[in-house]
Structures are given as C-alpha cells and as structure tokens.
Amino acid sequence: MNLDALFAAFEEARKLSKHREFVVVGSLSILGLEGHFDIPESMTLSNDIDCYTKTDPGRIYDVVKALGENSDYHQKSGYYLDAVAPGLPTLPDGWADRLILVERGGLLAWFLDPNDAALSKYARGEPRDRRWIQAGILAGVVSLPIVKSRLRSVTFLDDDEQEKSKALIASDVAWFELVMDKRTTE
User: Fold this and answer.
1) Are 49 and 110 within 8 A, CB to CB?
2) Coil, helix or strand for 97?
3) Residue 24 and residue 85 in one domain
4) Which strands make up the sheet holding 100-104, listed edge to edge?
5) Domain end: 114, 146, 166, which one?
6) What is the pLDDT of residues 56-68, one digit of tens each?
7) Parent domain of 82
8) C-alpha 49 chain-centroid distance
9) 123 and 108 together in one domain
10) Which residues of 116-134 are buried (b: 16+ CB within 10 A; e: fewer)?
11) Same domain? 126 vs 155
C-alpha cells in the first residue's frame, strides 16, 4: 500500500460521501510520512484502510458497501476502506493535535503520529501489531521513550489492557537493547 492507492480510495469515498477530509488510524497511518523517510515494507502490508470522515465520522459507514471489505472495489484494487469510529483506537491525550496532514487533489488525509499508533497497537497486542511496532523502532520512526512518556495519558479499556500494554512495551525495550548490543559487538 502507498499514498497513491490510499488517495485513490479516498477519491472514491469523496464521490460517494461528498466528504474530502479523512482520518487514518491503524497500520497505514504510517503513510502520512511517505516521502519523508524510507518506510519499511512490513509497515505497509495492510490492505484495510482504517479510517473515518473527519468532520462527520459516521458518514464513513455510507461508503462501506461500495468500498469496504469484499466490495467490487476491494476485489479490483486489493484493498478496502475499513470504517472505524474515532473512539475505537486506544490513544494518548493530545493525539488529535499530532495528526499529520497530507493534501492531494483537494483531499485532506490526517494520519496518526507513529508513536500514538504504536500505543494503540500495544493496547491491541496482536503479533502483526508487534511486528509493525518493531519495524518502526528499527526505522527510527517509533520512539520507545516517547511511547513510554505518552503511556501515562492513555485511557485504557480496562486494567488488563493497561497491564498488557506496559508488559509489551517493557518487552520491546529489552528486545531493542539486545538488538543494539548485538550491533555494537559486531
């Protein structure tokens, strides 16, 4: 997935919804930095664009039939819009102020900051999320000190989600230290 493909989907969504501003959360939020650094391929493998319309979030659901999973659009392009509500991802305070804006052809796409996306992924804790986070750490776009700092302002679903997130972050801190130690001894 790349920005061209993402904006092609948003152009179709604009035609159907009459909205031109979209917020991208999840794995493909990293595309907001395309052109600013070499994004690892493993961070762009998703074929679902988790998003909502910025000014009227519920309107994204109006395009799901035409652009969602198993739609003709999905079958032809290989990717689809996955409508989400703004409150779905577990995010730290201030995340909306850190959105990254990319404009093309009159469309505005707002992307999660990679560190905020990482916190959401820690909360979910799936193996593919961990691979995305670790690729981001190695690429220097996800900062464990920033993630740890923002962790304090996250409102988690429950105590279990919070403890799981803390444990996964601690695990990645230890993993990254091993990676760095290995690099300095080689």
Assistant:
1) no
2) helix
3) yes
4) 80-83, 48-53, 21-24, 107-111, 100-104
5) 114
6) 998 899 999 999 9
7) 3-114
8) 9
9) no
10) bbbbbbbbbeeeebbbbbb
11) yes
